[in-house]
Amino acid sequence: MSRIITIIVGHFKSWYRSKSNIFWTIAFPLLLIVLFGAIFGNGSTKFDLYLQNQDLSANTPTPYSQAYIGVLNNTGAFNIHMVAAGQTVQQALDFVKNDAQLHNRGQRLLVVPAGFASELSATKKANISLYFDQSDQASQSLKGIVFAATNSYASNLSNSTTSIDIQQQNLVTRNIRYIDFFIPGVIGMTLLTTGVFGAVNTNGRYRELKIIKKLATTPLSKIEWILGMVGYQMILATISLVVILFFGYAIFGVTATIDFYTVGLVVAAALLFPGIGMVLANFVKEAESADAAANAITFPMMFLAGTFWPRETLPDIMKIIANFMPLTYVNDGLRDALIYAEPAQALTNTIIALGLAAFFIVLGSILMNWKEE
Q1: Of the spans 19-28, 216-225, 338-347, which averages the highest pLDDT?
Q2: DSSP for 241-303?
Q3: Residue 75 belongs to a domain with what CATH number?
Q4: How far apart are the first and last CA of the chain?
Q5: What is the DSSP letter of 50?
Q6: How far apart are CA 169 and CA 358, in angstroms?
Q7: Could you tell me which residue, 286 or 183, shows the higher pLDDT?
């Protein structure tokens, strides 16, 4: 029995001396609970819905239309964004498209037409129009809630025979499948993990072998060392991009546009994520701690930066946090360049990623002290 206890004690000592083992055994499950609990635990996910109320009387919403909008609000399922009533439907749709892309919202428009109140009063029947992309799963869920709220409103009017018909209008926003959405996210996630883990692990290993301290005796500068690491990661990033896109095309028929913006984003990501890893490496003095530290940085970004699902479905506080994550801009830019054909948005995200990359590379070179390594 004593020998068995000795073996158990020996293995336990080996376990708690390894920071990565502690991370995967304790910290990782807790991190998943926090992330998924924050995203899904409170059940407060809301859908973006643009609404245009054309049913006005003296430039004021009629009581019927105002009450209907109140019912939609009371569901707690929508973030309602009002569209000016004076616009034509086409103008409203153009506004929705531009505004939704600017704020990363879903493109759905509900129109309460002029005469809504008078038709309910005279004939007990009325129509409203819902414009949405019928291939979008989130929009399908939204449609179901709109139908339920509308039927509830109609049944609560004075005459139980009142009916409100929802005319569904297909709005082709971005005719893509989930796999089309997912592939750029996988590329972004791969660039993140290879960049951060590669930089942290390499520096941790070289620090233990005293290689970094010896570099101080050579003409090599710190910025040259960091750029060399980044150049290596850029080669890996290119290989990953080609392999993932080829696999997506061969297996799932994913068609992507590789252009100047795609190249720019891959270069930006290959600079950015190793730069983050080099900064992180300055705070990780042991090689065993490297994996745990890198995981603590990369996992929240994977789940919150729109890798696996649209950020629109996140709770509001999670959306705000995601806006401060570098992977958010890489994922958005890759989708804009590869799938959505939105060059202006891809360029904006590339510039942001390049700015962050420059910041982290310079910060990493400042923090690194070779003589103390």
Answers
A1: 338-347
A2: HHHHHHHHHHHH-------HHHHHHHHHHHHHHHHHHHHHHTT--SHHHHHHHHHHHHHHHHH
A3: 3.40.1710.10
A4: 44
A5: E
A6: 46
A7: 183
* Closest of 252, 293, 247, 281 to residue 360, by C-alpha: 281
pTM of the complete model: 0.65
Query: Long-range contacts for 117-125 (Cβ within 8 Å, ≥24 apart)?
Result: 117/55, 117/57, 117/62, 117/63, 117/64, 117/65, 120/64, 120/157, 120/162, 120/164, 121/64, 124/159, 124/161, 124/162, 124/163, 125/162, 125/163, 125/164, 125/165
Measured between alpha carbons, how far is residue 172 from residues 93, 137, 340 in Å? 11, 13, 12
Distances (CA, A) of 27 to 21, 190, 213, 291: 9, 22, 32, 12
Alpha-carbon gap, residue 182 to 159, rounded angstroms = 48
Q: Which of 149, 170, 191 is the last residue of a domain?
A: 170
Running DSSP on this structure, what letter comes out for residue 6? H
Residue 57 has phi, psi (to 5 degrees) of -135, 115
Q: How many domains does the chain have?
A: 2
Token pair, residue 98, equals 């531009």
Cβ neighbour number for residue 319 with a 10 Å cutoff: 17
112-120 mean pLDDT = 88
Question: Which pLDDT value is given to residue 34?
Answer: 62
User: Taking phi first (over 0 means left), then psi (-120 to 50 degrees means alpha), and beta for anything else, what does residue 164 get?
Assistant: beta
Q: Which domain holds residue 101?
A: 47-170
Whether 61 and 147 map to the same domain: the answer is yes
Distance CA 63, CA 86 (A): 19
Rounded to whole angstroms, the Cα distance separating 178 from 137 reads 9
Q: Could you identify the residue written with the tokens 């983050």?
A: 276
User: What share of residues in the chain are helix, strand, coil (percent, to 5)?
Assistant: 70, 10, 20
- Tokens read off for 157: 């009017």
Rounded-to-integer distance, Cα 189 and Cα 269, Å: 10
Q: What is the pLDDT of residues 277-313, one digit of tens each?
A: 888 887 776 666 777 778 888 888 888 888 887 787 7
Tokens of 140: 């399908």
